[in-house]
Amino acid sequence: MKSQASNKSAPGGKSPDVRSRQSGRTHRVWSRYSDIGLQRRVMAYAFIGMAALAAIFAFVALDAVDKSTDAILRERLNLAKTVAQSVDQTILASKSLVSLTASDLGSARPNSARPGELTGHEIAMLESLRASLAGVNAGTPPESVILFDADGRVVWETHLLAESNNTIPSPEFFDEAASPSVSASGQGYSTFSVGTDISGNSELARLGAVILPSHRLLAVAGQTDTAFGEYRLELLDSSGRVIANSSGERPNDRSRHIDVIGGLVFNRVEGVGEHSPVAGDEADVDHIVAYAPLSSVPWGIVLEQREDAALALPNSLRQRVLIIAAAGLAAGLTMAWITSRQVVLPLARLTGQAKRIAEGDLSGSIAPEGQDEVRRLAVSFETMRGRLEASQRELADWSTELEERVRERTAQLEQRDRERSVLLNKVISAQEDERKRIARDLHDQIGQTLTGLVMQIGGAEATLSDDQAAVKKQLADLGESASEAVEEVRRMMSDLRPSVLDDMGLESAVSWYTENHLEREGINVVLDLQRLKTPLSPNVEISAFRVYQEAITNVIKHSSASNVRISLAYDEDRLRGTIEDDGIGFEVSAVQPGADGGWAVGLLGMTERANLLGGSLHIDSSPGKGTTVNFEIPLEGAAHNE
Asked: Are 183 and 169 in contact (CB under 8 A)?
């Protein structure tokens, strides 16, 4: 249940770690922002405000410019539609002329006319029709005016469609119900045909005309309005080929705009847009293209105009809007910079003075400058500086007196420390001398007495007869107890002052003590003892041995260890020792002198012995992880103890 509760998300669906990371990022961003100078912040605020105003102004103005652009595009489309209506009127007028002439032919033929031949009046009407068709087609005569009899034979025609290069259509092509119709065959141009039936005349059946629209229709239409500037018109057939253009040409090729307006041509719908030239296009600039379909035939009008000419006014307005917005932004930023400098410069100088004061330099007054709040702030700083200077002088006087007192107290403490060291050294020396004396007395008096007692008990036991077994048993037990007492006295003598230390040196003494105490307790010991080539001073030797002795005693009494590693090493000027066990360990900071009797006092004694000779001792331990005692003593430690 505890692990499940710890995995629950914090309120809001975010874990504490996520919220902590977000808070850290926010704090870093805010710290970076706080490091920005005042003038930069003022300029940033001014820039944001002016940029917002400029953006709003530019948006409104450019929106109006865009609407003006849309209006211009609609005007170009309307012009294309006007031209398309003009061409439609030409086609419808041509149809009306053919219908009127057909009506006249049906009522004007006299009874005396010979079958199969036209009268002069009928020929005159046909010639008049040809001239009239040329008039409505901007002076370009029709490709052909054809008269058919009832059997479908051509009775009369003007010429053989030389310009359009098309064949003469059949009579069905001039069906009145389908008129006007369009045709294009071979390599010829697309043409439109109009026709009608002749009623009231048994000789003549149908009248028709094939007309190739004149390019002058586009030229005349293009001259009707010059307010739009120079533009170009094209008449396209249903396949997108150019029948004629306002330049007086008949390319009969696909329009270069067909990729843009192809969908409009196919669906016979109007539209307008912008066309950017591509590689290989004969037009090298962007231009406007408008398309308007004819209503009478599946053709259409294309209007093309250079974009820089059509949109000159909107483009100029757009540039002016951007220039005005940029100029306004620059002017606003300039004013903000000038205004902020009037505030920031005095504040910067005042900040420098405050920094100088913060660094402790209170010399030199702060001149009031700036205006309004900045000037009052400078006056307040000067008042504060004066008070701080007075306080600093008082503190300096107090500090001088305090330093003198501290020096005196330090000298007293140092003297007491020296006296304590001398006293401690004498105490330790006296302790060692007393141990040596007690060990000698134990050997010379109690040891010899006990040894003699053992020998006497053995002699008394030997004089008894076999029938005194009970007495012999008591004497044997008494002799054994006396022998144990002798061994205990010898052990006490070794603990007080092992003779091996005086005879063989520190390494042998540590090895002997370890063997007689740790190994006797069943503890596995690893020794790594380096032998010094030159003898140690007595103070260093006995102090190092006592540290080993106390540490080994603590291992036996308190650690419950199974393994102990003891090392002794020398470098150029120091003796280094380590006693490491795998016992239960303890909390070093929890051990205080006197808290648990001799153990804490023993630890303190080890430390004092090392410190007294200019060395150090460190105990590293924690519950359940064993204990390590590291110490080091200068080889010239005796010099520190003089």
From this structure: yes
624, part of any domain: yes
H or E element at residue 171: none
If we measure between CA atoms, which residue out of 277, 285, 279, 282 comes closest to residue 311? 285
What is the pLDDT at residue 227?
A: 45
The per-residue DSSP string of 313-382 comes to: HHHHHHHHHHHHHHHHHHHHHHHHHHHHHHHHHHHHHHHHHHHHHHTT---S-----SSTHHHHHHHHHH
Residues 419 and 566 in one domain: no
Number of domains present in the structure of the chain: 3
Residue 293 has pLDDT above 90, yes or no: yes
Q: Which of 310, 341, 374 is the last residue of a domain?
A: 310
Check: CB of residue 302 under 8 Å from CB of residue 234.
yes
**HSE of 503, CA atoms in CB hemisphere, 13 A:** 6
Q: Do residue 446 and residue 576 come from a single domain?
A: no
* End position of a domain, from candidates 310, 344, 360: 310
Check whether residue 199 and residue 256 sit in a common domain: yes
The answer on 513 and 481 residing in a single domain is no
**Dihedral angle at the C-alpha atoms of 455, 458, 463, 465, nearest 10 degrees?**
170
Of residues 148 and 422, more confidently modeled:
148
Q: Evaluate whether residue 58 is within a structural domain.
A: no
pLDDT, one tens digit per residue, over 344-363 is 777 777 777 777 777 777 67
**Do 475 and 593 reside in the same domain of the chain?**
no
- Do 444 and 508 fall into the same domain? no
Cβ-defined contacts of 124-132 (< 8 Å, 24+): 125/101, 126/101, 126/156, 126/158, 128/101, 129/97, 129/98, 129/101, 129/209, 130/158, 132/97
576: tokens are: 């280094």
Task: Output 422 or 553, whichever has higher pLDDT.
Answer: 553
87 with 232, same domain: the answer is: yes
Q: Return the amino acid letter for 490.
A: R
Q: What pTM did the predictor assign?
A: 0.45
Q: Which domain range does residue 538 map to? A: 503-640
CA separation for the pair 636, 640 (Å, rounded): 7
**What CATH number is associated with residue 608?**
3.30.565.10
SS3 543: helix
Q: Give yes or no for a contact between 634 and 616, defined as CB atoms under 8 angstroms apart.
A: no
How many residues are there in the chain? 642
The DSSP symbol for 556 reads: I
CA distance readout (Å), 333 to 341, 358, 436:
12, 34, 95
**Residues 46 and 336 sit within 8 Å (Cβ to Cβ):** yes
Q: Is residue 510 part of a domain?
A: yes
> Is the confidence at residue 640, as pLDDT, over 70?
no
* 80 inside domain: yes
Query: Is the model's pLDDT at 377 over the cut of 90?
Result: no
- Nearest C-alpha neighbor of 209 from the set 299, 298, 87, 93: 93
With residue 613 as reference, give the H or E element that holds it: none
Cis peptide before 293 (omega within 30 of 0): no
Together in a domain, 529 and 492: no
Range from 135-144, 186-195, 282-291, 548-557 carrying the lowest mean pLDDT? 186-195
Q: Is the pLDDT higher at 322 or at 583? A: 583
